[in-house]
Write a structure and sequence with these properties.
507 residues, alpha/beta, Aldehyde Dehydrogenase, Chain A, domain 1, Aldehyde Dehydrogenase, Chain A, domain 2, 2 domains, 5-stranded parallel β-sheet, globular
Length: 507
């Protein structure tokens, strides 16, 4: 007789050990394509668990910072190698956990691999500066110093890539950390930590608490021994994180919302622009901070563009991301599904023309999952809420524009400033757009998604607070500059005072 298989039980990771939540409370992590499928049972961490994790990180910091950076980097390199070996397995688990198609979860794991290799290289490239002193017989230079215990709060849409973006620069610099992954996707973060543990990371250097924001995330951000907080998520929560950090003058790095635009000019390659709009708008079911949720199309090509985009949106194959035929998976949970449905009603109420999608799929193969049709609104005004507010779902709003100037005005007329793109064959116009678009990232003849790990990632306005992830810029979040002066003159020299003359040349 067949028996039900009990779901696997996972734990927090504190001081090198997998441990249950102090309260004993747990929650289930379910597959958004089939909610009957329990991915695992996870601990519901609370303040007590956070305190233990931060204490472990605080205790490990003095010894970890003394490990030479190239040796720290060797551990990261071994981790990257292990991730390469496990890529297929990790991708399939991630699809089961958060829904996006396997091709995309493989890309998510690959981002973690790329970032880990990149930051392993920074073990021998943490360059400072040397500069001439204004005084004789005096040497001046700068070095990077680790900050201490880092709190990392990460989202569900890139459940391995974004943790890696934060963890790897923090670690190679000599910091220790506590990560609180999104409660919707704790398995992928657990696997990343599992790999780091397997390749020899010392106990206490990396710790993980799994749980809900109010129970685990907020106590972590508020903890007095945390020196820097790196948060990726909504602008609403990010603002609260910023306020908490301000009270203790903690370093605070925020990556938040986006309302990204594709501009399609009348000279654009429409085949390429349509491909970009479909991938940018409906990849990951629109659940990316860089998703192309707005498209501004020149009136000369508007009718053709709308017709072709609608046709492509209707043809997209929706289903379980583990099915090789699937192009669009489910959204993450019921709450997000309801939010998307609410914005569709808002769009219709504002007078936007619904040309594709607009409905939840909840029968047949979709009955046990959180599926929403790829949705296209046409004839939108840039001031409509569906063109101003982040929906985070497979909903694209298309706006007709008269010229380049009106496109730039629409693009910049939102509170966010993450990513933008323009499709044009006019090189002069392309360079003007690169200058005039108020975003941290600009693409030319490509959609608004596709960041690479060796370039800075982040936005302006209500998207971010001035920091960047990835590349060398990612080191700045998790390090302090220390300036060093070495005076070998064997006498008192006073900067800005004893600089009036040349002194004795040769001393």
């Amino acid at each position: 007789m067949a028996t039900a298989v009990s779901p696997k039980v996972y734990r927090n990771f504190i001081d090198g050990k997998w441990v249950e939540a102090r309260s004993g409370k747990t929650f289930e992590n379910r597959n958004p394509a089939n909610t009957d499928d329990v991915v695992g049972v996870f601990p519901a961490a609370s303040r007590e668990d956070v305190d233990a994790a931060v204490e472990a990180a605080r205790h490990a910091f003095p010894s970890w910072r003394q490990v030479p950076a190239p040796k720290r980097a060797e551990i990261l390199f071994r981790a990257a190698e292990r991730l390469v070996q496990r890529k297929e397995e990790l991708a399939r688990e991630m699809t089961r956990e958060m829904g996006k198609v396997v091709a995309e979860t493989k890309g998510d794991v690959q981002e973690a691999i790329d970032m880990t290799y990149y930051m392993a290289g920074e073990g021998r490239r943490q360059f400072g500066q040397t500069t001439p002193s204004e005084l004789q017989s005096k040497f001046a230079m700068t070095v990077r110093e680790p900050v201490g215990v880092c709190a990392l709060v990460t989202p569900w849409n890139f459940p391995m890539a974004i943790p890696a973006w934060k963890m790897m620069p923090a670690l190679v610099l000599g910091n220790t950390l506590v990560i609180k992954p999104a409660e919707d996707t704790p398995l992928s973060a657990s696997r990343l930590i599992e790999v780091l543990n397997e390749v020899g990371l010392p106990p206490g250097v990396v710790n993980m608490v799994v749980g809900y924001g109010e129970d685990a995330g907020e106590p972590l951000v508020r903890h007095k021994d945390v020196k820097v907080v790196s948060f990726t998520g909504s602008t609403t929560v990010g603002r609260k994180v910023n306020e908490i950090c301000a009270g203790d003058l903690k370093h605070c790095h925020l990556e938040m919302g986006g309302k990204n635009i594709i501009i399609v000019m009348d000279d654009a390659n429409l085949d390429l622009a349509i491909d970009g709009a479909v991938w940018g708008g409906f990849g990951t079911s629109g659940q990316r901070c860089t998703a192309a949720s707005r498209i501004a199309v020149h009136k000369k090509v508007y009718k053709e563009f709308i017709g072709r985009l609608v046709e492509r949106a209707r043809e997209l194959r929706i289903g379980d991301g583990l099915d090789p035929a699937t192009e669009v998976g489910p959204v993450i949970n019921r709450k997000q599904l309801d939010t998307i449905a609410k914005y569709v009603e808002i769009g219709k109420g504002e007078g936007a023309r619904l040309t594709a999608g607009g409905k939840r799929l909840d029968s047949g193969p979709y009955a046990k999952g959180w599926f929403f049709e790829p949705t296209v609104f046409a004839d939108c005004d840039p001031k409509m809420r569906i063109c101003q507010e982040e929906i985070f779902g497979p909903v694209v709003s298309v706006m007709p524009i008269d010229n380049y100037e009106s496109a730039i005005e629409a693009a910049n007329g939102v509170v966010y400033g993450l990513s933008a793109s323009i499709y044009t064959r006019d090189v002069n116009r392309a360079f003007r757009a690169m200058r005039e678009l108020d975003t941290g990232i600009v693409y030319v003849n490509a959609p608004t998604i596709g960041a690479e790990t060796h370039l800075p990632f982040g936005g302006i306005k209500q998207t971010g607070n001035g920091h960047r992830e990835a590349a060398v810029a990612g080191l700045d979040v998790f390090s302090e500059w220390k300036t060093l002066y070495i005076d070998y003159s064997d006498r008192l020299q006073r900067a800005q005072i004893d600089t009036g003359g040349f002194g004795s040349v040769g001393e």
